[in-house]
Write a structure and sequence with these properties.
By secondary structure, the chain is mainly alpha-helical. The protein is built from seven helices and no strands. The chain has helices at about 1-20, 30-35, 35-45, 50-75, 80-90, 95-115, 120-155. The longest helix is centred in the last third of the chain and has 36 residues, at about 120-155.
């Protein structure tokens, strides 16, 4: 247990160091809501000393990539995927437009992340982190809840 607590302490210390260096305001708790840095560090068994900012950006990107796949499948389902095909039919044209707009924003963040990870401008990297955290927690999460709830209710009403 001490090793876990030590690793999580190292994560917090490194996060605060990088936060100050890159000038972002998002808290570790805000980021933990969707990218589980603590779990990643515990799984890896260490906190990267030299590449923590890259690690942070890639951890932020993981759920963006995952939800991009879900949203894409809801508006353009594969003919071999009965689940997504059925769910897609439950969406109105307005909902498909909303999902498409969200998908565009997700792709924007994915592409932006791939650029800023190589950008030496620390302010730009810090701004990316804050923008991505804000978008995920305040825009994407409510949309995910809305659509997953819609489909949960649909499947719950389906006849056996």
């Amino acid at each position: 247990m001490k090793d876990k607590l030590k690793l999580l302490g190292e994560l917090k210390d490194k996060f605060e160091e990088v936060k100050k260096e890159y000038g972002f305001v998002s808290s570790l708790e805000d980021i933990e809501k969707f990218c589980y840095l603590g779990d990643g560090v515990l799984s890896d068994g260490y906190v990267s000393e030299n590449h923590f900012i890259e690690y942070l950006i890639y951890r932020i990107l993981e759920p963006f990539n995952s939800w991009a796949g879900n949203f894409h499948s809801w508006i353009m389902p594969s003919p071999q995927d009965l689940g997504y095909m059925t769910e897609s039919k439950q969406l109105s044209e307005e909902e498909k437009k909303e999902i498409s707009a969200l998908l565009s924003k997700i792709y924007y963040f994915i592409r932006r992340a791939r650029r800023v990870v190589y950008d030496p401008d620390k302010k730009e990297i810090g701004k990316f982190i804050d923008d991505a955290v804000d978008f995920f927690n305040n825009t994407l999460t409510p949309a995910m809840i809305k659509y997953t709830k819609k489909f949960e209710e649909f499947w719950g009403k389906s006849k056996e």
